[in-house]
Design a protein that fits this description.
It is a single chain. By secondary structure, the protein is an alpha+beta fold. The chain has a domain of 53 residues: Alpha-Beta Plaits, CATH 3.30.70.20. Helix content is 19%, strand content 18%. The strands form two sheets. A two-stranded antiparallel sheet has the order 1-4. The protein has a two-stranded antiparallel sheet with strand order 2-3.
């Protein structure tokens, strides 16, 4: 809503999802965006921030593309 500081429904929202069942612990996502991705005790990907700022869109796209098992999905992200 205008003037309230809250996004309205028309504003794009990013949602990050990672499949730790297919993760092979390459750590490329963690190294690229440690504020979004972390690791569990086995080294598999964990999403720390499932709704990161749209300012991170370019790096999220790079992280998704660099994942060797395609274990990262980013909803609401425009392809380059």
């Amino acid at each position: 809503m205008p003037g309230t500081g809250t996004p309205d429904d028309s504003e794009a929202r990013l949602t990050v999802v990672a499949d730790n069942e297919t993760c092979v612990t390459s750590n490329l996502c963690v190294n690229r965006l440690p504020e979004v991705f972390g690791q569990d005790e086995d080294g598999c990907v964990v999403v720390l921030d499932p709704h990161p700022s749209a300012e991170l869109a370019r790096e999220l796209l790079r992280a998704r593309r660099s994942c060797p098992t395609r274990s990262i999905r980013v909803e609401g992200l425009a392809e380059d």
